# Entry
Amino acid sequence: MSKQYDVKDLSLAEQGRKRMEWAEQEMPVLRLIRERFEKEQPLRGVRLSACLHVTTETGNLAKVLAAGGADVVLCASNPLSTQDDVAASLVHHEEIPVYAIKGESNELYYEHIKAALDHNPQITMDDGADLVSGVLKDRPDLLETMYGSTEETTTGVIRLRAMAAEGVLTFPVIAVNDSDTKHLFDNRYGTGQSTIDVLSGRPMCCWRARRLW
# Structure
């Protein structure tokens, strides 16, 4: 994909900026990290591709990573959760390339994954292991310069363990999903799960059935 971004409508950028600022008020730890990152620049010069839910929360995360010096590209891990105004704001106000459109087709989803990998990342952040899978299957040329990755989800960790068991996972991945905060709180009461689902004990469903890897 030759475009430097692919979002629905840049005219939504101001709305997205306001919503991210509102969300940031409830993210005090991230604000403290940003202050430190701006001073210390721990990610200066690092190319980072993230495949995450494109929402106000991850929009603020992308801003913090960029404030720390990272060269960030963002694509959507779930087309159904993409907030088009946030995607537009990141492109217009923060100059962060974003490849995400709410409701995008399966074909476009994988074009966006490819665009994120064309950034030649040294670090990836995954929500479902699609970037890691893409590196191993389609972009093995990136392996020499890869520092590692992070994985947010149970689905992704299952895929990664399958890769590790087959001996193909050749760089470190931090399983964020297995931290107590994520596993005991967010996985049980997290994004997109209704109160009725929580009370009935029904698990959230993945937006797409994925192969092991």
About this structure: Residues 131-213 form one domain.
